[in-house]
Amino acid sequence: MGMKYQLLADRLREDLSRNGGQAGYKLPTEQELAQQYHLSRQTVRHALTLLEEEGLIQRRQGSGSYATGLLPGEAPRQIAVVTSFLDDYIFPTILHDASDVFSRQGYSTAVYATENQVGTERQILLGLLEKPVGGLLVEGSKTALPTPNIDLYQRLRQVGMPIIFLHGAYAELDGVPCVADDNYGGGYQLAQYLADQGHREIAGIFKSDDVQGPQRYHGVVSAIRDAGLCIQDGRFAWYDTEDRFHLLENGDNRLLADFLQRRLGGATAVICYNDEIAYHLIQALLAAGRQVPEEVAVVSFDNSYLSQLGPVPITSLRHRSHMGRVAAEQIIELLRGGTARSKFLEWELIVRSSG
């Protein structure tokens, strides 16, 4: 015979099943359960803790225990959202939109950050295998590079966990949908815009370890080619996650100083990987006595608050669709037994003073 608290937990699971796991259904109080089953309050609390750990109930201090809507044996009604950086300027909007979709469908959200570190990503995935959730919305770490974590993603798929990637997916992982921006199209659009403005030498700064960087670069150089202009390899600089950290956290400006000294040359326009690097580049240009846009135009991606925060408002691409909402809707469709497919979201150019 099982322990008393386990037997009570079994009875309560049956009670939840009879009520269809209806969210908001209130269980009897601890005192009522103790009296009904002739058990101590400590035994009752132990049983309720077990049900809470299984995601079947939510205990509210001073109010009681309520069904979450999850039936015994079902996948937990929680979605894990794994991102690179919690403080990234575009993540709060993505999280807000995704959480809104999830909550309207009765799912809560658990948020994790990898700091774009492969090792941290692995620890998070191992935790999700040990304590599964209903679905996974994930921004992979260093997606432009081969990853050692494919084995864990495959194991998550084998246990039936729906997965949707944000921004970019790993090349080694087939069949997992991704909701991303049309990075090639965005790069092409920016370079075409600058060529139409009369710029004949175009430079760029791109992130090397996330797949968005090579994709955006590809669009840029394709548009330069199609405009009949010369692609000058030496005009393009690359930086990675560690370079970003040194620039933002330590104020280490060597990346941009090297770009101005060795890469910019006679280029009259620079296409930046995002508003973050564009914001710092404009400040470096002005500090070096270069006028923006009179001498050097600067354009970028994301149309974030940074595009209007600095001394020169930045011409930037705006997302036409809400990525968080689109990705969350894909997860919900998978949870309903449907199918999902990769989607690439279009951009809209917002012209400002920088170029």
Describe the model.
With 355 residues, the chain is α/β, with parallel strands linked by helices. Helix content is 41%, strand content 18%. It contains 12 helices and 14 strands. The strands form 3 sheets. The chain has a 6-stranded parallel β-sheet with strand order 4-3-5-6-7-13, sandwiched between helices. The protein has a 6-stranded mixed β-sheet with strand order 9-8-10-11-12-14, with helices on both faces. Helix 11 links the parallel strand 10 and strand 11 (297-301). Helix 4 packs parallel to helix 12. It is elongated and about 85 Å long. It starts with a helix and ends in a 5-residue tail after the last strand. The mean pLDDT is 92.
List keywords for this structure.
355 residues; alpha/beta; six-stranded parallel beta sheet; six-stranded mixed beta sheet; 12 helices; 14 strands
